[in-house]
Amino acid sequence: MREKIEVGYQAFVSDGSEGFGAVREVFRSGLIVYVENAGDFVVPLTAVEAVQSQKVIFDRGKLDRRLQEAIKHARDSEDRTLGL
After folding, report:
1. Do the beta carbons of residue 69 and residue 15 sit within 8 Å?
2. Terminal-residue alpha carbon distance, the chain
3. 1-61 — its CATH code?
4. Among 20, 33, 58, 83, which one is least packed by beta carbons within 10 Å?
């Protein structure tokens, strides 16, 4: 049985090591995930690859293109602050 997803769990993609946001809401067929620097996105449960240690890991290939682009830029403001 898959671990229950709860509000506040961190969001990751299976091919990335850094989180890009957090779960804001859980409903029957999906989640609302806040992505840093981009806002809220509805993500279907079919995109969830794993849930472990208060982390939700998504299959990038099952995410819509707009969300994939947002994930690429989730750390932009943090990188600018660090001078990267």
Report:
1. no
2. 41
3. 3.90.50.10
4. 83
Per-residue tokens: 27? 């409903």
42, 56 in Cβ contact below 8 A? no
Domain boundaries defined on the chain: 1-61
**Per-residue pLDDT tens digits for 9-61:** 999 998 877 899 999 999 999 999 999 889 999 999 999 999 999 999 999 99
| Helix spans in 1-84 (H) | 65-72, 76-81
Which of 19, 9, 17 is closest to 71 using CA atoms? Answer: 19
How many other C-beta atoms can be found within 10 angstroms of the C-beta atom of residue 11?
24
Asked if residues 10 and 17 have their Cβ atoms less than 8 Å apart, the reply is no
Q: What is the pTM of this model?
A: 0.83
In the structure encoding, which two tokens stand for residue 48, read together?
């969830």
